[in-house]
Each structure stands twice: as C-alpha cells, then as structure tokens.
Amino acid sequence: MNDASISIEKTGLGSEALRGLAGPGDYIALLKPRVMSLVVFTALVGLVRAPGDVHPVIAFTALLCIAVGAGAAGALNMWWDADIDAVMTRTRRRPIPAGRVTASEALAFGLTLAAFSVVVLGLLVNVLSAALLAFTIFFYVVIYTMWLKRSTPQNIVIGGAAGAFPPMVAWAAASGTVGLESLLLVAIIFVWTPPHFWALALYRADDYARAGVPMLPVTAGPDETRRQILFYTLFLAPLGVAPALLGYAGLAYAAVSVLGGAGMIWLAFAVYRRRSGDGAVRAARQLFGFSILYLFVLFATLLVEALVPGI
C-alpha cells in the first residue's frame, strides 16, 4: 500500500460512507483538463508542422490518444499524490482527497486509459509514436511523480521533460520520425517549465512546505528561487527565438518571440527585484500568468504560419 492509500485510510476518505459519490465531473477532474488542453495544443502544433500530409483520421486519432495519455498520467499522478493533495490548499478539493473517488478507482481509471492510448496509437498510427507516448506517461508518473517530486528541489527541472514531449510524439505520429524542429519545440517547453512553476511555488511555498514537497522556495529559499527564475528566463528568451533564426519559422513568429521573450525577462527581473510584501506576490503571479500566455502565443503563431503560408 503506498502513501496515498495509507493517508486516505487514516483520514477516513476511503470509507464506505464516502464511496459512490463520484460524478462524471470528478473523473474529468482526474484527467487534469487544463494541463491536458495545453498538451493537446502543443501536440497539434507538432502534428501540423511535421513534414508530409497526414490523413485527417490519423491526425484525429493521434491527438485523441495523446490527450487520453495525458489524462491517464494526470489520474495516476493524483492517485499517488492523494496524501499530499489532502494537506495542500490548492489541491485538497480534488476528487480523491475530497473522498468522491477512491484511490483504487483512480488507479484503475488511469491504468486503463494509459493502456488504451498507447495500444490504439500503436495499432492505428505507428509504433514510434506509441513508444514515445508510453515513455512520456512512464516519465511523468514514475520518474517525476513517484521519485523526483518528493526527493529533490530539481523535480520541476527534470520532471518538466514529460510535459515537453507531446509535440515530439505528435511529430512522430505524423511523419514516423523525430525531427530537429520537434526537438526544438520540446526544448522550449522544457526550459519554460522551471520559471513557470517556480513563480507559482513562490506564492504557494507554505502549501508545499506543509505537504513536505521539496520545491525550490522551500529548500533553498525565495531569493535563490528568484535567481534561478531569472537564469532560466534569460536562457528561454533566445531559445524561443531559435525557430526563426534556424529557418523553421517566419517573420511573424520572430516578432512574437522577441516581444514575448522581452516580456518574460522584464517580469522575471521584477520578481528578482521585489523581495517582500504584496509587491513580491504580485510580481510572481504576473510572471506565472504571463508565462502561460507566452507559451500559448509562441505555439499559436507557429500553428498559424503552418496553416496560412506567407504570413
């Protein structure tokens, strides 16, 4: 029995009185739909920008399997993390700690979806993309959730690779290969992840400390976290421009990436400068919110340039 199951038994959340209360919305919540939407969107960009033509049915199947695989990883993450979710303000209303779904139900749900997504992708699209999807799920659930998240403040740095893989999985589904451009898209998401999540962790540090999760603000303090955020952002900004510099993207993307990168650096400097009070919290929140917009606009521009040649 893992820690999640033990915690649920201790708090009574696994009792008969709380079973059978789950509705469709609770199972949707297990899929982490907001994370899934970002995964599907970045995968769509990888699919569209891959060389060659893809049959619409194959494209739809690939995106569906990637979405289901991402949802499966989310459900398995919630299964394992139910004990810490129960003590964090941000997550205590999730279906398992709230008692609407049992840990065993979430585990069965996640494993079923994971197997479905990988098998269907392998049978109907190609083996390479299925293997990459299987590795992505394994990396997120086993490497990140079960190991890194509770053992090192570098959890987000290394574990962020799982969230960066979807464009490569979709590229492989469309072309049967892993191209340099898809690896560049992976690199952008990978480097984007630490400043994005550490900005959140700065104003949620008490939550992570209470749950015993060694996020960087908890183990190294907020000042070191601010320094690391600035370091990664200064690396992210030119990396975000790289698709245009390497000839993979056009002028529209070049302009958007330069302006977006400048915005990220500006806000990262604001986080670095403001060390206390409401101003520090506001700066971290602004960087967290803008980072989502930044990544979305970068990938949206790549998508538009692929669909509307000449922009």
TrEMBL record:
Question: Could you list the residue ranges that cross the membrane?
Answer: 58-80, 101-124, 130-148, 155-174, 180-203, 229-246, 252-272, 284-308
Question: What GO MF annotations does this protein's record show?
Answer: protoheme IX farnesyltransferase activity
Name the Enzyme Commission number(s) assigned to this protein. 2.5.1.141
Give the main location. membrane
Q: Where does it sit, as one GO cellular component term?
A: plasma membrane
Q: Which UniProt keywords apply?
A: Cell membrane, Heme biosynthesis, Membrane, Transferase, Transmembrane, Transmembrane helix
Q: Which domain of life is it from?
A: Bacteria
Q: Which residues form the signal peptide?
A: none
Query: Which pathway does the UniProt entry assign to this protein?
Result: Porphyrin-containing compound metabolism; heme O biosynthesis; heme O from protoheme: step 1/1
Q: Which InterPro entries match?
A: Protohaem_IX_farnesylTrfase, UbiA_prenyltransferase, UbiA_prenylTrfase_CS, UbiA_sf
Where, subcellularly, is it found?
Answer: Cell membrane
Q: Name one GO biological process term.
A: heme O biosynthetic process
PROSITE patterns per the UniProt record, alphabetical: UBIA
> What reaction does this catalyse?
heme b + (2E,6E)-farnesyl diphosphate + H2O = Fe(II)-heme o + diphosphate
How is this protein positioned relative to the membrane? Multi-pass membrane protein
Coiled-coil segments, which residues? Answer: none
Extra remark? Carbon 2 of the heme B porphyrin ring is defined according to the Fischer nomenclature.
* Role, per record: Converts heme B (protoheme IX) to heme O by substitution of the vinyl group on carbon 2 of heme B porphyrin ring with a hydroxyethyl farnesyl side group.
Tell me its family: Belongs to the UbiA prenyltransferase family. Protoheme IX farnesyltransferase subfamily.
The protein's name: Protoheme IX farnesyltransferase
Q: What organism does this protein naturally occur in? A: Aquabacter spiritensis
The uppermost taxa in this organism's lineage are: Bacteria, Pseudomonadati, Pseudomonadota, Alphaproteobacteria, Hyphomicrobiales
The gene behind this protein is: ctaB
